[in-house]
Amino acid sequence: MKSNPIFSGVIAPALTPFGEDGSPDPDRFVDHCEWLLEDGCTGLAPFGTTSEANSLGLDERMELLEELIDAGIDPSKLMPGTGTCSTADTAILTQHAVDLGCGGVLMLPPFYYKNPSEEGLFRYFADVIDEVGDDRLRIYLYHIPPVAQVGFPLSLIGRLKKEFPEIVVGLKDSSGDWNNMKAILEAFPDFELFPGSELYLLQGLRAGSVGTISATANISARAMRDLYDNWQSSGADALQEKISAMRKTVQTYPVIPLLKSVIAHYREDAGWADVRPPFVPMPQAEAEKAIRQLADQHGFTLAFEDEGDDD
Amino acid sequence: MKSNPIFSGVIAPALTPFGEDGSPDPDRFVDHCEWLLEDGCTGLAPFGTTSEANSLGLDERMELLEELIDAGIDPSKLMPGTGTCSTADTAILTQHAVDLGCGGVLMLPPFYYKNPSEEGLFRYFADVIDEVGDDRLRIYLYHIPPVAQVGFPLSLIGRLKKEFPEIVVGLKDSSGDWNNMKAILEAFPDFELFPGSELYLLQGLRAGSVGTISATANISARAMRDLYDNWQSSGADALQEKISAMRKTVQTYPVIPLLKSVIAHYREDAGWADVRPPFVPMPQAEAEKAIRQLADQHGFTLAFEDEGDDD
After folding, report:
1. What's the gap in Å between the CA of B100 and the closest CA on chain A?
2. Spatial contact of A26 and A64, defined as CB atoms under 8 Å apart
């Protein structure tokens, strides 16, 4: 594992709640992010895939980030997603995050044009870094080929890391391919690698990764944090088994609508379940069934102190 | 063919030239668009795939559109691309285009999340239409599954057309699948269908489409326009054959870098060849070879009156 990583532990790509008019709801968002940090998250990656970031407008993203920091959340714990298809908009979002003091940014590759050349992708990141032109910038590459289609081959990671050693410091690997994560860890032992699913949390830590950035951390960061804090203990395998079983159940549903329905249920706040198209909310009956399944099979429940009557 | 279509004929998804600092170059852009209309284009679709639209920032797109109209180009001939991954930004770009008097907009589906449900896609467009809330809005759906991955199944087109008959008026079909174009024409004979390649120009016109929106129109609109104007003549098949042969040669190269290199060559303006990452410019030698091939095999050449010494 890298010594003194900038980010480590359990990081949630925070869900983005919407208000009745369909706009992002800053109050619900701040409440959720504050709760995530209480629930065991060591950091937050707002505007990830799970956050429906690409369904938000540029201005909406910047305003929500400002809300978090205005509410007192330590910006050094924030790794907002800032990657768009264009160097111009990516530079705008990235500069904004750096200016707010964010500890890092999570950057998708340009994902509209398919099968770009490695040279083209290298130039993309070099242009963004040049445009931002700020020594404080720390980039975590966001490798999620099942969604973005465009990913980061090992040779591209190597080239970016070599050219920008102080800036390109890590990667979130949502390939779901352990062999890819292993290859990155072996090739770049001083890189901050985050598996994009807690299925690989223990395996990753044993091989040198620094934690996980996982959708499920929006509802069950506590269990992941317990494992992260005790991964060298004798009980680690049992903890991982329990976490993996829960994750596998979550994955049988449309993940983003499910996670929002879970929060809506335990917060007794139906509006929390709203999603932006192209997603659609889970039908109420299906959501209730899923929530029962998580409770029955995995003992999963949430308690929000604010509500009181949940306890 | 639809009677009295809003758009018809040969429409170029205008290339976006860049200046030395990497920003879009409004002067080169306006010159190119004015020339396209002289060269036979009946309309322009700035900010299409060929325009590298998704490599531009939101502000850059809006500024370039304003430049065209400020330069005196009739906005009713403009069908700018306004589709992004988010309802918020798509509504901003669309409202901007409508306010400027554009005849229509070309709208990609939200293309980040893969395999969205048809219901989710329907809600996406319904939300954008509601958000813009303007009777002047005319939407051309942009079906380009090889790039966007997310496309428009026939049932979705039917539902959008039924719900918004005055607004959802046409589609650009860049699937490269004639059977899909044929199915749309048969199901919706009053729809303005544009094949996304001139390979289908004559076949399309005979089956009821209204023209083509094609990348190649950036360099050879004149030949397409001749065919469009004479498609019912006895020489139409021979014209189509010639056009198709040229297109097939163009397609053996990376199309966007090639088209820009062709313009750079005949305008004697090397900077025209610049592209934004993730594209890379064609190496000079490869570009020269391609330009020679187009000249030798297809008699292709361009003359720009401004330069004089090209003639």
Report:
1. 21
2. yes
Residue type, A44: L
DSSP strand pairing (A43-44 vs A105-107): unpaired
What average pLDDT is seen over chain B? 96
pLDDT of residue A174: 98
In the structure encoding, which two tokens stand for residue B249, read together?
């040669």
Q: What count of residues does chain B have? A: 311
Tell me whether residue B27 is exposed, middle or buried, using C-beta atoms within 10 angstroms of its C-beta: 0 to 12, 13 to 18, 19 or more: exposed
Chain A residues in contact with B112 (beta carbon < 8 A): 49, 54-55, 111, 147-148
Q: Which two tokens stand for residue A54?
A: 């690409």
| Residue B213 to residue B12: CA distance in whole angstroms | 6
Instruction: Tell me whether residues B85 and A54 touch, CB distance under 8 A.
Output: yes
Average pLDDT score over residue span A166-183: 98
What secondary structure letter does DSSP report for A53?
G
3-state secondary structure (DSSP) of residue B43: strand
Instruction: Name the residue among B233, B229, B295 with its Cα closest to residue B265.
Output: B295
B52-74 residue pLDDT tens: 999 999 999 999 999 999 999 99
Cβ-based contacts of A283 with chain B (< 8 Å): none
Q: How far does the CA of residue B195 sit from the closest CA of chain A (Å)? A: 20
Which residues on chain B are in Cβ contact (under 8 Å) with A280?
117, 119-120, 123
The residue written with tokens 């540029």 in the block is: A58
- The answer to whether the Cβ–Cβ distance between B57 and A116 falls below 8 Å is no
pLDDT value of position A306: 59
Give the span between the Cα atoms of A258 and A251, in whole angstroms. Answer: 9
Which residue of B lies nearest to A88 if distances are taken between CA atoms? B57
Instruction: Report whether pLDDT(B310) > 60.
Output: no
Cβ <8 Å between B86 and A56? yes
> Which residue shows structure tokens 């598996």?
A195
Whether B281 contacts B271, CB under 8 Å: no
A27-70 pLDDT, tens digit each: 999 999 999 999 999 999 999 999 999 999 999 999 999 999 99
Cα–Cα nearest to A81, from A6, A24, A15: A15
- The 10s digit of each residue's pLDDT in B215-233 is 999 999 999 999 999 999 9
